């Protein structure tokens, strides 16, 4: 009789547990629903706040596009002038107040476009988002510098880190041998453009961290040149020296041939002298022996022939000696040229990528590692430069907001700008965008696809950082 009671007790306990679990599950569901409701309400409130903040921004004047930023090395001013010359009624005002102020103005709704060589920073992006502005970034072109030595020479490696490039060029640098940066024992000399070249300012700001680059930021033995050609000759030497040096083997062969010919001529002269001495001795003997007149005539003819032979041999020796001296001098010049060309082995300079492309058969570029501790050795190419992968590159950017993109004036100007971007980049000796990049960005303006919004992830906090990641507009 006790067993049924025990079983009933167990059943009651199970029912109580199940009932409690059911009640707890219902309470948990209610808690989740409350949390979701509160989160939704916060999202709605935040959207309302952002919408109000955006509505409170100053209105943009009709028929006007305001651009601010840095016009140094930019294409924007020229393209604004070309756009206005098309007969448009839109006025494009381009200011040059610097990138920092321009991004502040953009996020305050006072300008439409920022002309910059760096992406918007995280702090600047936060400022835009705090007033409800979504950020869109267009790339117009790219620029890069290439650090190069002479083609077909070797200093023990093809890859340098950003720190190594900086150490080689910076003021007070102790580096006078490639071995000091982990390469071969080769004397090092550095050169590059002077302050009038765009590459000088780019290199000073992005490599030497000098806001206003000058020669004082570079090592005291830095060889500066008025143009890229001078820097290239510093690295590869002159065409004349190279051409003369290239003749060394041929000149040495001809000198050897001339020397052999001269040796043969001298042997012939020695033989002619011996014959003349013998002929004269024979003639004297014939006189003593009172040979017949006919025999003495033969002795005299032999002497005359020996004299003529010696005269011809001596003349040939003199002629071949002069020729040999000519080849000796020519070999000396080619040897000197070869020594001079050899001294260029350790010379290094930097160039704009567009100039390097013209002489890539003469220049050997270094691959560069990004300043993140990884030795990834990125080669300079149109692809790695326009994408921002190559560390010594910068992207020419136009940053705007979806609010400004909604204005006909802004989208029309950007359509014009992108349509001419590649040709303008080539004319300005910049790196043009790939066709596909241009097509993708133009589609944002024509409405064929939604523009990509810059996100807070991987934002740049300093010049030279890669472009911020992006996501499609909602």
From TrEMBL:
What SUPFAM superfamilies does the record tag this protein with? Periplasmic binding protein-like II
Signal peptide start and end residues: 1-25
> Which parts of this chain are annotated as the region Disordered?
50-75, 451-474
Which branch of life, at top level?
A: Bacteria
Q: Pfam families in the record, alphabetically?
A: PBP_like_2 (PF12849)
Q: Which InterPro entries match?
A: PBP_domain, Phosphate_ABC_transporter
Entry-linked PANTHER family: PERIPLASMIC PHOSPHATE BINDING COMPONENT OF PHOSPHATE ABC TRANSPORTER (PTHR30570), PHOSPHATE-BINDING PROTEIN PSTS (PTHR30570:SF1)
The protein depicted here goes by the name Substrate-binding domain-containing protein
Origin species, per record, is Nocardioides luti
């Amino acid at each position: 009789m006790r067993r049924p009671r025990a079983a009933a007790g167990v059943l009651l306990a199970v029912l109580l547990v199940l009932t409690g679990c059911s009640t707890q599950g219902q309470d948990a569901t209610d808690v989740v629903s409350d949390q979701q409701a509160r989160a939704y309400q916060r999202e709605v409130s935040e959207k309302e706040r952002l919408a109000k903040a955006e509505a409170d921004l100053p209105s943009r004047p009709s028929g006007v596009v305001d651009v601010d930023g840095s016009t140094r090395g930019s294409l924007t001013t020229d393209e604004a002038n070309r756009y206005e010359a098309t007969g448009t009624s839109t006025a494009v005002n381009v200011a040059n107040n610097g990138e920092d102020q321009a991004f502040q103005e953009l996020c305050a709704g006072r300008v439409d476009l920022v002309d910059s060589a760096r992406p918007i920073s995280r702090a600047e992006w936060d400022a835009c988002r705090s007033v409800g502005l979504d950020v869109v970034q267009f790339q117009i072109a790219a620029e890069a510098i290439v650090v190069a030595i002479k083609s077909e020479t070797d200093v023990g490696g093809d890859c340098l880190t950003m720190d190594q490039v900086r150490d080689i060029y910076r003021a007070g640098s102790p580096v006078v041998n490639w071995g000091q940066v982990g390469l071969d024992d080769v004397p090092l000399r550095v050169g590059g453009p002077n302050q009038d070249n765009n590459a000088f300012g780019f290199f000073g700001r992005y490599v030497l961290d000098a806001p206003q680059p000058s020669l004082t930021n570079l090592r005291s033995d830095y060889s500066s040149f008025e143009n890229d050609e001078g820097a290239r000759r510093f690295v590869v030497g002159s065409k004349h020296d190279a051409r003369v040096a290239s003749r060394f083997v041929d000149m040495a062969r001809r000198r050897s041939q001339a020397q052999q010919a001269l040796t043969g001529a001298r042997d012939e002269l020695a033989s002619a002298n011996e014959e003349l001495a013998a002929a004269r001795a024979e003639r004297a003997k014939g006189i003593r022996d009172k040979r017949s007149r006919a025999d003495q005539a033969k002795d005299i003819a032999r002497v005359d022939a020996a004299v003529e032979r010696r005269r011809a041999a001596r003349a040939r020796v003199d002629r071949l000696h002069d020729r040999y001296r000519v080849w000796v001098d020519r070999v000396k010049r080619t040897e000197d040229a070869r020594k001079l060309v050899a001294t260029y082995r350790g010379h290094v300079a930097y160039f704009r990528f567009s100039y390097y492309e013209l002489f890539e058969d003469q220049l050997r570029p270094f691959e560069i590692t990004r300043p993140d501790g990884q030795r990834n050795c990125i080669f300079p190419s149109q692809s790695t430069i326009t994408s921002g992968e190559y560390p010594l590159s910068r992207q020419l950017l136009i940053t705007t907001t979806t609010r400004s993109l909604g204005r006909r004036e802004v989208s029309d100007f950007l359509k014009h700008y992108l349509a001419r971007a590649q040709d303008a980049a080539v004319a300005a000796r910049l790196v043009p965008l790939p066709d596909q990049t241009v097509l993708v960005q133009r589609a944002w303006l024509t409405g064929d696809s939604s523009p990509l919004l810059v996100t807070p992830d991987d934002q740049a906090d300093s010049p030279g950082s890669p472009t911020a990641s992006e996501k499609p507009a909602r």
